[in-house]
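Internal tracking record. Fields below are filled automatically when a chain is submitted to the structure queue. Please do not edit lines marked as system-generated. If the sequence contains nonstandard residues, flag them in the REMARKS field before resubmitting.
Queue: standard
Priority: normal
Entity type: single polypeptide chain
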Amino acid sequence: MKTAKIKISQLRADYGANVRFRDNYGDIQELADNIAAKGLLVPLSVEKLPDGNYGIISGHRRYAALQLLVEQGRLTDADDVTCVVQAYQTELERAAGKLLANDGQPLTPDEWAAEIGRLAEAIKAASPEQDFIQDIAATLGKRPEYVKTMYETWSKLSKTAREQIQTGKVGMTLAVLLAKKAASDKLASLSVEIAAAAKEQIKEKGDSVSDSVLAEAVNLTTNKIVQDAKEGKQITGAGIGADILANIVKVKGAKKAANEAKKEALSGDIKPTNLVSYVYELIGAMQPGNDREVLQQLIKCFNNATDAAEAVQMIFGSQSQTKAA
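SYSTEM-GENERATED OUTPUT FOLLOWS
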């Protein structure tokens, strides 16, 4: 690592590999004015490229401010700026340099998550035998489970779906929820793209929707699209948009009903004799796979009037009999 003066014209910004989302640069004009008045106080972190130019590792925001100063005629491409020239040996070292650098505007959780997912995929492609999950977690100070989730989500998504995340239209939290629900990688990507469009519609209407509600609504819409395609039905953008908005209302209503039922259970207003009908209603508002665990916790709130294990067995048993009938 060494410090060097490098001409602005020799700097290269690979926005596709930039850890910071392009619309998350903050007030570039203010930063540009500060650089014009005081100089570049924090050097750019760069590495030499095969063509003799320098690729930016950390400092894309400062570089954007320098470019603005050139456009405004306050600097020229021939002007030198101070840079720290790095010589990374591995992709993990390079990524750590980007993620752990702080140029005055901390990275968002989505930027961290997307970069970790991209990094894990790159390392696995280059070194399949490497324990990249543990290595990344140790280097970046993240939990292995978190790194694994980000990798699995990122690796499922198409280039277009990833762009929705990198432009800030869909957060990684929502992408993780969508990817977990999707039956295939293609459907995961489709869900992310639909979610991006839905968020735009919701924003235009002046509304707000939680990631969990939107994920369930998009999942319902995606499944309907697949079914319609199989049946040869016409699929339109307007139809998809209307379906999502309708599903959002449906999911919100189901969650509200479940929350109200839970409050009644906790307050003791629901009697054991109403237990089966209450749980049936609750199951209808719950995501598949979580029934037993949640039910066991809720049933314990009935003042020990009904044994949790016996009640769950009774509920699921009667449910099976109803289906069989």
